[in-house]
């Protein structure tokens, strides 16, 4: 690929996902997708820089919260609903919890963070919750 | 769009500068862009918010265009003007535009964010005008195509004072923008563009303002901050790397849960404590004696007696800590009673006593401090319960993980921690038959009390019997009779804990609480162990003391005989040389302290053996059998009967605690014991970690350890206290042996202190001490302490209450917030719509859009009411109206609109004259002309 002559090169998701920083991450596909402009995971150079700038240590909490929300919003409907939570949980635990346990966890999570009672998490709910999480800043970053 | 908005909102001056022709167009743009701009993006996505759209449609159009075109701002501006014009023409058009917007909306999702941020920035900057103004200037200067730009150029050359000041401000703001650019959630392309513009602007004007020096300093600062961050990170890493076994414990924790890990953390803590004790003992007692004391073989107490010398190196003897071991620095008897040794005049006996007592002092202090700290940590978890599952879901994966093994551990630990929380949660959900539960719990406690009482009586009975046996001739006793006590004790230790566990099933407690009960019960059982041990020991010591008295008399008798004979033969009565006997042949007493020390060391060593063998057989062998015999067995060994072992938390913790009690009691009589214990803890850390990972399976219900290990600590404190008493008792009341140890020749051990006070300290110190030991003073001091304790206790109670109050309030607030939102949702359609729009706004503090939206609506209506394009005059009228409508403090930020049409007479220099508020007011007034 000749980047100098053709700066609009896009790197496909499959390549990016295999870089060592992301390889082990259960959310790697979602990360790349949320940072790609087309939503399919094809990253231009700018998108790529964008990704690591958001995931860097220096990025402020609000910025990270926005992208974290995008990442965990699997079906891209701007809400984190129960299916999203289930997906998140299954990725986190490699599907080792029983369906009842998954159900319980998701219900509890929604109950905890849902402020407007629509049984899904809007960004406001999410931000309200994540802004108090003690570990969010320390875990949501990647060093390269 | 956003950019346009900025321009428009930009300083009044700029707007004035621009051609008057524009003025008409601007207001329209403003109206659209002004506040709604924030919400536009949302509206696009969700087409259900009808009210705002009308107002916004126009804005949206302009936005789309800007996005699509993505050309120079000028073009956009022009486009917006055109659009504005179009809007004015007819509303039908606007509806078409809506459609456009929708189409564009999907693409524009990302852009929306940018826009929002833009708006925010403006707000943040406080001076809405700042950026916009700069941008405009940039454009004008760089591109110079606009008719208006020509004006600017001429103005630049003749900058007035005010102009200069403003420019400076703008440059500052640009700089700020450059510094914070990376914090904006824009796409990189946009950031780059922004950055370039800002940079070129700064470059251009910094020269003019004569402050180009800041640059290097800035670069330096940035570099330094980076360096500092890196250093801090390295330092943190270093600190973490310095915590021993952290990764090992993490690994265990990830597979077995925090409850098992809590044992290992406790073990590590214990290791640290013992390391310090080891430092004290070896640094202040053992090493000085080795380096500066008399060498081995020089005096009787440092020599193996003649009759033992043949067998002194036999393994069986050494294994029992006889022979050379007995006469070594490991034990009390080896130390000499010389008042001071070596060049430094080191007071060894004094140091020995102080270290012996200091060990207790230090341990007490550390245990209590740790407990206090743990209690503190446990106390601040007010919000802890609020988002347990959410936080676990969204923050438990560490994005830094790049190593497959670590990742596997992380998966395991996340799963485990979820399971722990689920257990807790299920415990909360469990609905129960209270009466039955209570009855069962009482029953269980009764049963266990019976068990404890029975075993207590059994121990008492056996000990009494063994005392009877002790009076008989040892050779007549059978093996059973000799070892009765030990057998009974170990049988009890073997049978009772599982029995308690079975009984505890009745109670159906949460596993964490059940563990505490189990610990407390087994602890009570083991106390019997301790009691018999001490009982036997004191019997032995008393016997030894008797024996010693006898030997002492005999020695004195022999010495007198020797003197008498000496005078007889040499006819000298003075200066009789001491009898010339090899130190190995000297008659010596039993030296009870060393005996006690040997008892403790033996006990510790046998404990180590038993523990390690149990692990090897009970866990490892079992695991091997289950694993490999499973291939050829008639039922499933892994899932069925023997299965793999679970890690026995309560047994291990108590083993550790009682072992530490032995160390505390024995350290005074056997300084080497601390060293042995350090080795033991070190090896068992590795050994048990391995055993757990290799042979055990996690508990069926993995449960979270209580965050403070204070229950373990409490037990430890109790054991410390129990082991402190016999040692202090022996120091204060029992006479030390006359021929061994650092206190030989004294009536009581603490006489060393008296001696030091008398001989080494100046006389007034002795006075002070004698006053201080006055009962009157001591009693009043004790009284004072009691009062202090009472006071502090009362204070802490008060704080606790306050704490509880605050927690309750926080909870209430949370509930209230939830309720309020819910109510709003159902009652207020407008609010609901707004709320639905919010997610995209993301960066805007929630309350703002709602408040700002209203004024926008009102504004758009108000012009109709007034209906007259009366330029500035109408503007003011509207302004007033707005104030009324908003009543409360109006969020100014989004109102960064271009100023309304203005009388042409304004001079650029005065531009800043009207306060921003007025500018805004006018800006709002703007729309009427269009309609």
From TrEMBL, chain A:
GO MF entries: calcium ion binding; magnesium ion binding
Keyword Repeat included in the entry's annotation: yes
Occurrences of domain EF-hand (ranges): 60-95, 101-136
GO CC annotation: cytoplasm; photoreceptor inner segment; photoreceptor outer segment; plasma membrane; stereocilium
Key word Metal-binding present: yes
Classification via Pfam families: EF-hand_7
Biological process terms in GO annotation: calcium ion homeostasis
Subcellular location: Cell membrane; Cell projection, Cilium, Photoreceptor outer segment; Cell projection, Stereocilium; Cytoplasm
Domain of life: Eukaryota
PROSITE patterns in UniProt: EF_HAND_2
Predominant location category: membrane
InterPro entries membership: CIBP, EF-hand-dom_pair, EF_hand_dom
Keywords: Calcium, Cell membrane, Cell projection, Cytoplasm, Integrin, Magnesium, Membrane, Metal-binding, Repeat
Cross-referenced PANTHER family: CALCIUM AND INTEGRIN BINDING FAMILY MEMBER 2 (PTHR45791), CALCIUM AND INTEGRIN-BINDING FAMILY MEMBER 2 (PTHR45791:SF5)
Protein name, UniProt field: Calcium and integrin-binding family member 2
Annotated source species: Carassius auratus (Goldfish)
Gene: cib2
From TrEMBL, chain B:
Gene Ontology biological process: detection of mechanical stimulus involved in sensory perception of sound; vestibular reflex
UniProt-recorded Gene Ontology molecular function terms: mechanosensitive monoatomic ion channel activity
Membrane topology of the entry: Multi-pass membrane protein
Transmembrane segments: 269-291, 312-335, 350-368, 442-463, 518-538, 662-682, 711-732, 768-792
Keywords: Membrane, Transmembrane, Transmembrane helix
InterPro entries: TMC, TMC_dom
Compartment list: Membrane
Chain intervals for the UniProt region annotation (Disordered): 1-168, 810-931
GO CC annotations on file: plasma membrane
Pfam families: TMC (PF07810)
Ranges annotated as biased composition (Acidic residues): 1-11, 39-48
Top-level lineage group: Eukaryota
Biased composition (Basic residues): 17-34, 72-84, 100-109
Comp. bias regions, Low complexity: 864-878
Family designation: Belongs to the TMC family.
Record protein name field: Transmembrane channel-like protein
Origin species: Carassius auratus
């Amino acid at each position: 690929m000749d980047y100098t002559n053709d700066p609009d090169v896009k790197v496909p998701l499959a390549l990016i996902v295999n870089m060592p920083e992301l390889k082990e991450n259960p959310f790697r596909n979602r990360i790349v997708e949320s940072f790609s402009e087309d939503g399919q995971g094809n990253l231009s150079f700018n998108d790529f820089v964008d990704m690591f700038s958001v995931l860097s240590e220096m990025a402020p909490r609000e910025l990270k919260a926005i992208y974290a929300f995008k990442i965990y919003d699997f079906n891209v409907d701007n809400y984190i609903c129960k299916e999203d939570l289930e997906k998140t949980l299954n990725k986190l635990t490699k599907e080792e919890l029983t369906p009842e346990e998954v159900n319980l966890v998701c219900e509890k999570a929604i109950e905890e963070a849902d402020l407007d009672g629509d049984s899904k998490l809007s960004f406001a709910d999410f931000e309200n919750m994540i802004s108090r999480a003690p570990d969010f800043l320390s875990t949501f970053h990647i060093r390269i | 769009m956003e950019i346009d908005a900025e321009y428009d909102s930009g300083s009044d001056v700029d707007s004035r500068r621009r051609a008057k022709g524009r003025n008409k167009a601007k207001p329209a743009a403003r109206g659209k862009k002004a506040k709604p701009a924030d919400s536009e993006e949302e509206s696009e996505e969700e087409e259900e918010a009808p009210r705002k759209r009308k107002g916004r449609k126009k804005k949206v159009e302009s936005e789309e265009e800007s996005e699509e075109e993505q050309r120079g701002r000028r073009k956009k501006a022009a486009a917006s003007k055109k659009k504005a014009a179009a809007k004015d023409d007819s509303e039908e058009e606007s509806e078409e535009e809506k459609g456009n917007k929708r189409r564009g909306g999907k693409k524009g999702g990302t852009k929306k964010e940018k826009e929002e941020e833009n708006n925010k920035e403006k707000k943040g900057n406080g001076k809405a005008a700042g950026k916009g103004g700069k941008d405009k200037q940039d454009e004008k200067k760089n591109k110079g195509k606009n008719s208006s730009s020509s004006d600017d150029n001429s103005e630049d050359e003749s900058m007035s004072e005010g102009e200069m000041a403003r420019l400076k401000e703008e440059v500052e703001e640009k700089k700020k923008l450059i510094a914070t650019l990376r914090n904006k959630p824009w796409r990189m392309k946009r950031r780059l563009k922004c950055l370039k513009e800002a940079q070129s602007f700064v470059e251009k004007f910094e020269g003019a303002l004569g402050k180009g020096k800041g640059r290097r300093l800035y670069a330096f600062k940035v570099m330094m901050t980076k360096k500092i961050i890196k250093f801090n990170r390295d330092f943190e890493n270093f600190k973490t790397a310095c915590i021993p076994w952290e990764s090992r414990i993490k690994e265990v924790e990830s597979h077995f849960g925090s409850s098992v890990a809590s044992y290992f953390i406790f073990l590590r803590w214990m290791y640290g404590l013992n390391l310090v004790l080891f430092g004290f003992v070896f640094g202040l007692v053992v090493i000085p004696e080795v380096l500066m004391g008399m060498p081995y073989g020089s005096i009787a107490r440092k020599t193996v007696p003649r009759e033992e010398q043949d067998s002194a190196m036999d393994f069986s003897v050494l294994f029992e800590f006889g022979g050379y071991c007995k006469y070594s620095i490991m034990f009390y008897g080896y130390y000499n009673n010389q008042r001071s040794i070596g060049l430094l005049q080191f007071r060894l006996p004094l140091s020995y006593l102080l270290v012996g007592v200091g060990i207790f002092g230090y341990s007490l202090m550390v245990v209590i401090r740790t407990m206090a700290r743990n209690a503190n940590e446990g106390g601040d978890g007010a919000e802890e319960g609020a988002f347990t599952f959410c936080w676990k879901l969204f923050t438990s994966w560490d994005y830094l993980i790049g190593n497959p093994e670590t990742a596997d551990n992380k998966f395991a630990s996340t799963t485990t921690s979820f399971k722990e929380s689920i257990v807790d949660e299920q415990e909360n959900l469990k609905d129960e038959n209270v009466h039955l539960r209570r009855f069962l719990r009482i029953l269980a406690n009764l049963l266990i009390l019976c068990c404890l009482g029975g075993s207590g009586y059994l121990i008492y009975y056996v000990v009494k019997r063994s005392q009877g046996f002790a009076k008989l001739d040892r050779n007549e006793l059978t093996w059973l009779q000799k070892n009765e006590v030990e057998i009974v004790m170990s049988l009890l230790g073997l049978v009772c804990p599982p029995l308690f566990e079975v009984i505890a099933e009745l109670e159906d407690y949460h596993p964490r609480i059940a563990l505490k009960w189990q610990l407390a019960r087994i602890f009570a059982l083991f106390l019997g162990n301790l009691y018999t041990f001490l009982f036997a020991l004191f019997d032995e010591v008393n016997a030894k003391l008797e024996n010693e008295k006898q030997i002492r008399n005999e020695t004195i008798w022999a010495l007198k005989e020797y003197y008498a004979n000496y005078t007889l033969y040499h006819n000298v009565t003075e200066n009789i040389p001491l009898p010339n006997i090899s130190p190995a042949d000297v008659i010596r007493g039993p030296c009870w302290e060393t005996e006690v020390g040997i008892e403790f060391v033996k006990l510790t060593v046998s404990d180590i053996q038993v523990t390690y063998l149990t692990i090897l057989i009970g866990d490892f062998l079992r695991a091997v059998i289950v694993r490999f015999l499973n291939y050829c067995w008639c039922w499933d060994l892994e899932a069925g009967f023997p299965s793999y072992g679970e890690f026995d938390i309560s047994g291990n913790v108590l083993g550790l605690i009682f072992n530490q009690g032995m160390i505390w009691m024995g350290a005074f009589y056997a300084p080497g014991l601390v060293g042995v214990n350090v080795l033991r803890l070190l090896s068992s850390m590795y050994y048990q970690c391995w055993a757990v990972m290799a042979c055990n399976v996690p508990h069926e219900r993995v449960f979270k350890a209580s965050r403070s290990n204070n229950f373990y600590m409490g037990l430890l404190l109790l054991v410390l206290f129990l082991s402190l008493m016999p040692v202090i008792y022996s120091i204060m009341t029992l006479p030390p042996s006359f021929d061994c140890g650092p206190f030989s020749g004294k009536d009581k051990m603490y006489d060393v202190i008296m001696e030091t006070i008398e001989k080494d300290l100046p006389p007034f110190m002795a006075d002070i001490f004698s006053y201080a030991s006055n009962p009157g003073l001591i009693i009043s001091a004790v009284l004072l302490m009691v009062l202090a304790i009472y006071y502090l206790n009362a204070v802490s109670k008060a704080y606790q209450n306050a704490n509880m109050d605050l927690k309750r309030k926080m909870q209430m607030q949370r509930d209230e917030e939830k309720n309020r939102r819910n109510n709003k949702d159902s009652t207020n359609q407008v609010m609901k719509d707004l709320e639905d729009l919010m997610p995209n706004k993301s960066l805007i503090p929630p309350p703002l859009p709602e408040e700002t939206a209203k004024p926008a609506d009102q504004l758009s209506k108000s012009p109709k009411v007034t209906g007259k394009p009366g330029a500035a005059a109408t503007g003011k009228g509207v302004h007033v109206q707005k104030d009324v409508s908003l009543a409360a403090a109006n969020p100014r930020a989004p109102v960064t609109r271009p100023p309304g049409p203005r009388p042409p007479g304004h001079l650029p220099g005065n531009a800043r004259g009207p306060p921003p508020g007025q500018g805004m007011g006018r800006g709002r007034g703007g729309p009427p002309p269009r309609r």
